[in-house]
Design a protein that fits this description.
Elements (H helix, E strand, L loop, with lengths): L1 H16 L5 H4 L4 H16 L2 H12 L5 E4 L9 E4 L15 E11 L10 E8 L3 E10 L2 E11 L3 E2 L9 E2 L5 H7 L3 H9 L3 H5 L6 E6 L1 H12 L18 H16 L2 E3 L11 E4 L7 E7 L5 E4 L2 E10 L2 E6 L10 H7 L4 H8 L2 H5 L6 E6 L1 H5 L2 H8 L2 H9 L2 E2 L11 E5 L5 E6 L5 E3 L2 E10 L2 E6 L11 H7 L3 H9 L3 H5 L4 E6 L1 H5 L3 H9 L1 H9 L2 E2 L12 E4 L5 E8 L7 E5 L2 E2 L5 E2 L3 E6 L10 H6 L5 H10 L2 H4 L5 E6 L1 H7 L1 H9 L1 H9 L2 E2 L18 E3 L5 E6 L5 E3 L2 E10 L2 E6 L13 H6 L1
Parallel strand pairs: 9-15, 16-22, 23-30, 31-37
Antiparallel strand pairs: 1-2, 3-6, 4-5, 5-6, 7-8, 9-10, 11-12, 12-13, 13-14, 14-15, 16-17, 18-19, 19-20, 20-21, 21-22, 23-24, 25-26, 26-27, 27-28, 29-30, 31-32, 33-34, 34-35, 35-36, 36-37
Length: 757
Amino acid sequence: MKYVLVFILVAVVLDVCLAGPGWNERRKGSRGDRERRRKMRNQRRMGTFDHFSDMFNQRFHGGRYSFDIGPKRDPWFGLDFSWTGETKDMSWWKGPNVCFSMKESVQNNTGEIHTHFSSQSLICDGTDTTFKCTKTRSTPRGKETTVELYECCPGFTRHEDEFGCLQEVPLFDIPTLLENLKLEELIKLLETSGLSSDVLFSRTNNFTIFAPSDEAVKMFLPLIAEMETTVDLTDLGSVVMVSEDIKDSVINNTRNLLLGHVTVGMVTSSQINDNMLIETASPLKSTIRMNVYQQPVQLLTANCKKVKQADNIARNGVIHVLDDVLEPVTETLLELIQKNPELSTLKTALGSSNIGASLREDGQYTLFAPTDAAFKKHKDLLMKIISNPSCMDNVLKNHLLPNVVCSSVIQGDTQTPNILNKQTKLTRDADDKLYVDGAQIITSDVMATNGVLYILDDVLIPDEALNLLQIAEKNDLVEFGKLVDLADLKKELHNTENVTVFVPSNDAIKVLSSRVVANFAKDKEGLQEILKYHIVPEVLSCSKLYNNQKFNSLQGTQLRINEYSSFPFGRSWTQTVQCAQIDSTPIKGCHGTMYVIDKVLVPPTGNVLDVLAQDKQFSTLIELIKIAGLGDTLQQDGPYTVFAPTNQAFSAIGSDAVDELKQNPETLKSVLLNHVARDSICCAGVIRANWFDSQKVRTLSGDVFRIGRTRRDTIYIDNSDIIQCDLTATNGVVHVIHDVITSASRRDPWDWIWDFK
C-alpha cells in the first residue's frame, strides 16, 4: 500500500511541475515552447467558461466517468482511469443554431468596511436546450456577476446527444400560437379589450405573455364583473345593451388586468432567476414576481401562480401558460395589512415595531398574518408580551420568512427558517388544507410588491417571546413551577431579565425524598436560596459554556461548568453544571435562556476538605490527610476530584496496614495522592469503554488509573467501584469508593469485554 501512495505522490508532484501534455517535446526548452506552456498554465489556473464547459461535459455528460493523474494524454506520466474510452467534445451548445447572450452586473460597496480577500464562484446548469453559467466574483470593491446563456435559437430544438440544435420547429405569430394552445377565452378578452392589434399582431416588438388557461379565465370572469355589477361578462364581446361609460369602464379594467400579464421583450424560462421581478405593461405599474423552486418539488411560479407550460415560442414573443389569472400587484405587505379590517391587531403591533418599516420596503418576504380573532385566543398571554417590545418583536419575527414561499410548493411536511432563526413547519394534509406550525391557513398567496401574505387562524408564539416561567410551563416543567410557587418567587422571576436558568427536570425533582420536600415547605428562605443558585444573571449561549468556566449565581455561590468528550474514539459529548448533566439544547426566551438539567443543585458548604470533614464516614481519611500534611493542598482553588475511601474501606485493608501508613508519612502521602486528581471529573463525564481506548485519569501521585462505566452502569476507578457520586464542593467534587487504591492494578485482559457490553 505504501508503494502505491508513493507512486501517486510522485505523479501529483510531476503534474504540478509539468504544465500539460507534450512533456517530451518541451524538454528542448525553446522560447516558443516556454511561452506556450506559460499560456496553458494561465488558462488552467484562471479558468474560462469554455474550459469549464469542456470539463463539465467530458467528465459528466452522457455517463462517462474518470479521474486523471498527471498531464492529459502524456505517454510517460499521464494516467487516465476511465471506462468509456477516449473522450470527445460533447459541448452541444458550440454547435449550429445555438444563440448566445451574456449579462453583466456590478454591485459596488460604498461606505462599508470589507475584508481584503476576494472570492470567485462558478455555477453551471443546463437542460436539453439551454446551458447557463453564472460566474460571481466578490472583491473589496463589490460583487461582479456574469451570466452566460446558450440556448436553441427560435425555431430550433434538439434531441438528446445532438451537437447543436438541429431540429427545426415551425414558428407562428402570437394569435396562431394562442389558438394552437387552445386559449380561446383569453383570445376573446384580448380582442374585446383592443389588445390584439398592439400585442398579437405586432411585428416591431417582442412580447412575453403569461397566459391564464381557459379554465382560469372562466372562473375569473365573474370577479371582473363585480367591478360593474350591472354587466354580465360571460361573453364580454356581446356587451352592447349598457351605457358607453359603463362599457368603457369595464373594458379599461379588463385591459389593465390583461396588460398585467404582458411584458415587453422575450423572457424565456432560462432567463428567469428566483425572486426576479418583471415589470408589466399595465398602467397600474404592477409587477410579476418569478420564483424557481427545486425542493420539495421542481416548480416555476409567477406571482405564486403555477406555470403549467413554459417557453411556447412565437415569431414575436413567448407564451407561458399559467393555472390562474394574475391580479394586479401594486401594494406592499404593510399596505395590505393596513387595508384589511380583520388584521387590525397585527397592524397595531407592527406600528410599534421596527419590523413594520421592513414590510414597507423592497424585499422578498413571506408573512403569516393572524386575524384579530386569532389574537383573542391568547388575550391574557399576549397582553403580558405586548408590554415588552422586544418580546413582541420576537412574536412578529416568528411570522416572517426571509424568502417567498408559494403555497403550491408545499407538499406534505416541509420546513424553512424564519427571521428568528427558527424552523417553521409547513404542512399540506390529505384534505389539501395548509398549516403553519399547527395554525391553519385561511387565505393563501396574497401577493404584494415585496412578498406574499398568508392569513392564519392562530398566533405563532415562540419560546423567544415568553418569560422564564411561561417557558417552563410550555415545556411541561411543572415540578419546577411548583417549587417556585412554594418559595413565593413567581413575581420576582416573572420580572427577571437577561438571565440563564438551569432548570431541574421533573424526574430530578420527583426523586427528592419526602423529608427534603417537607423541609422546603417549612423553610421558604432556604428554598429561595436553592432556586436562586440555579440562576446566573447573564444570558449564556452554548459557546460560553466551556470546561471549568465559573459563573456567579444569584444566590452568590459560583457554578462550575465542565465538558467531557470521547473524541477521537467516539462522539460522546457531555456538559455539566455542578456535575448535573445539561441538556445540550438551550431553550431561548425573551428574558433569558433555560437549560434543563438532571439534578437539583444544592449550594456547596465548603471545599473538598470541608465536604470530607462534615461526613463521619470519612473520619479515618481526614485523620490520615492531617498526618500526611495534605490539608492545605485540598483547600486551594483546584479544581480537585477526590476518590474518597470510607472508614469501611480502610478497615478492609486491616488496622496493621493503616498503622504502618501512619508511621510512614511519605508512603501515606503517596497512597493518598492516588485518590486525588487535579481536575473536576463528574460521573456524568465517565463514558462506557470502547473498542479502541478507555478513559484514564492521572492523579497527583503521578500514576495513571483507568476510570470507566460498566454495562451495568457501575462507575469504577482502578478496581474500586464508586458507590456515591458527585458530592460537589467549591473547589471540586468528591466521589465515595469502597476500596483503598494503593497502586495501579492490572485488570484481567478480558474484563474490557464485560465493561464494553
